[in-house]
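Q: Hi! New to this. If I give you a protein sequence and the SMILES for zinc ion, can you show me the bound structure?
A: Yes, paste them in.
Q: Okay, here:
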Amino acid sequence: MCKVNKPSVQNIVSAVLACAVIGVSAYAYQLYGNNVALNEQIAENTAKVSAAKTQIANIDNLNAQIADLQSQLDSKTAAYNELSNEKSSVEDLTQQAYENGWNDACYEYDFEPNPEDIPTYDYVAEIDKANSPTAYITPTGKRYHLSQSCAGENAIQTTIAEASEKGYTPCMNCAQ
Ligand SMILES: [Zn+2]
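A: Thanks. Here is the predicted structure of the protein with zinc ion bound:
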């Protein structure tokens, strides 16, 4: 036969207290764990917020640059439009003067100018001609020279473009 001792009140109280301490400890431990995890999340989120703030600052900076470039573009576009208008009015005036000159020349040689015969003034060709390097021709020669002394005493100053247009070919000695 075994004899079961009746638990004393003191023993029951002790057991209950022990359970309570274990329970509270476990709960405290769990809370501590939660707290660590929360702190990690807070640190992580703080870092994310800080990165986002940096990105926002970068975006603000880029937006400021874009606004600045846009205003530069606007002012360049305005200047370009102004120059385009000036260019087109200069072109109109030049074409008008060119046509007047053409008509005058026709009247001078006594024939009626035909508007369809008047060529359009070629700016690109004229600018090329104006920028063409200096050359020398002679009244009797068929070559143009880059060296005045090679052209000789009767050298006439012109440009390569003009000489070529008149049928002169480059001198073998100085222009090739
Ligand atoms: Zn020559």
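A: Residues 131-170 form one domain. Let me know if you'd like me to explain how to read the tokens.
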